Each structure stands twice: as structure tokens, then as C-alpha cells.
Amino acid sequence: MKSGSAFFEIGVRTNFSFLEGASGPEEMVVQAAHLRLGGLGIADRNSVAGVVRAHAQALQLEERYRNREAILAKAEKEGKREEILEPIRIQPGARLVFSDDTPDILAYPRNRRGWANLCRLLSAGNLKEEAVKGNCILTEAELMEWGDEMMLALVPDRTLIDHQEGQSALEDYLERFRRRFRKDFFMALAPAYDGRDRQVFAVLAMLAARNRVPLIAT
Length: 218
Hints:
Elements: E1 8-12, H1 25-34, E2 39-45, H2 49-66, H3 68-77, E3 90-96, E4 104-109, H4 112-126, H5 140-146, E5 150-155, H6 164-181, E6 185-189, H7 197-210, E7 215-217
Parallel strand pairs: 1-2, 2-3, 5-6, 6-7
Antiparallel strand pairs: 3-4, 4-5
């Protein structure tokens, strides 16, 4: 297999994130393979619904790549053109959105126990009496209880850096989550291409360093 990009994109929302994601999981997997990304981390809003189709598409790409010689030989014989994409790794997860002002968290299970914890966390949010259909109600306390065996990345609200109170609130979250999850906790930085990225990243990087939280790009 040829080596592709070293960049592993995380935090991807599919059309299973209602009004937030537009493309289907299958489309995103194929496009990521076209771009030769190192991998794709699916993270729909309080849901793991999109990861099944993404995984199925990834398996299909892998099977075609494994049988590429036979496929290409048949296509040549029939005068057709076939495209064989290299397999791509899919990492299932979820974007946890909270009801108590806790910043969004990208959650990616590290193993079977982590997957069970994520499903338990989402089930708890969906089964609450006040949760209407399709609405998952999560709190920081539930993340603290069920967040083990996952890679967790806080997605900061960029507007928080514009005032001292916001920066202090963000630092409180960084400190609490680092103490609880230690090496499994990160802060995610994503460009907005609004002309402020350099300034925003500088402040967020400073806050992360001050609280010993490593950064991760998305």
C-alpha cells in the first residue's frame, strides 16, 4: 500500500448530525480516500449512527483494493475504466454536546470498554424524561462518570478568548478534565478562516500549555 497523508481528520459530522452535517458517511469515506488522508474520525452530534455506514464503506474499499488486480484485468478486457482507491482507516466516535454549558467534546473509544462507555453515556442522555425524541441531554457529571478508555478532545468556543471571564471558564474545564482523564485528554484546534485564526490559536495554545493539555488539529 502506498503511503498517503499523515493527517488524520477527526471531528467529522455526517448527515446524521441534523442541520450540521450535509454529506453521507459513505461519501465522506470515499472522498477521504481520494484525498489519501491518514484516516477519518466520524463524530456526529450525540450519536454514533453514522459510523456503521462509514465502516461498511471502508470495508468495501479494502476488499476492492485487495482484489484490484482481478478487477482491473476484467475492466481492461471489457474496455471499461475502474478506479481503485487505497483503504482508509475509520475511527468511530461522537461529538458530545452538553446541556450545562460544558464545551463540546470529541470522544473516540480506545477499545471495547471505551465503546461500551460511550454507548452507555449516550443512552443515559437519550433516556432522560426531559429528553424529547432525537434530543440527547448530557451533563459534565455524566462525562466524568463514563469517559474512561476514550480519547477526549475539547472543542473550545472561540468567542471565549475575547474576555477574561471566558478564558478563566475555559481554563477551569481544562484543569478539571486533565486531572480526571490525564493523558487521554486534548484540546482540538480547527481553523475558521475568518482572519483571526492566528490570534485565536495563539491564545488557546497558551491556555492549553498553562494547563498541560496537549493540542490536536482538526
